[in-house]
Amino acid sequence: MKDYLIAFDKKARELAAVSGDAQYIASEIKKALPAREELDFLIVSNVQQKYLKK
Q1: How deeply is 11 buried, as exposed, middle or buried, from its count of CB atoms within 10 A (0-12, 13-18, 19+)?
Q2: Quick one: pLDDT at residue 40?
Q3: What is the pLDDT of residue 39?
Q4: Nearest Cα to Cα of residue 3 among 28, 25, 36, 31
Q5: SS3 for 1-54, per residue?
Q6: Which domain holds residue 14?
Q7: What Å distances lie between residue 43 and 11, 38, CA to CA?
Q8: CA angle 52, 8, 22 (to 5 degrees)
Q9: What is this structure's pTM?
């Protein structure tokens, strides 16, 4: 899980630097990282709250 979170953070930061679209970022993260179905529904919310400026 720790490796997943580190990879998620790195990828989310990279994507947020070039796009402000949470849905796009989430879809790219899902493509790049191993599937974790129990967390899938949280990706968009996490991206919006942590990586996108309000």
Answers
A1: middle
A2: 80
A3: 77
A4: 36
A5: CHHHHHHHHHHHHHHHCCCCCHHHHHHHHHHHCCCCHHHHHHHHHHHHHHHCCC
A6: 2-51
A7: 12, 11
A8: 30
A9: 0.86
Say how far residue 29 (Cα) sits from the centre of its chain. 5
Q: CB under 8 Å to 22, separation ≥6 — which residues?
A: 44, 47, 48, 52
Length of the chain: 54
pLDDT for the residue numbered 17: 97
Number of domains present in the structure of the chain: 1
pLDDT (tens digit, 9 = 90+) per residue, 1-50? 899 999 999 999 999 999 999 999 999 999 999 988 777 889 999 999 99
Residue 54: what pLDDT?
64
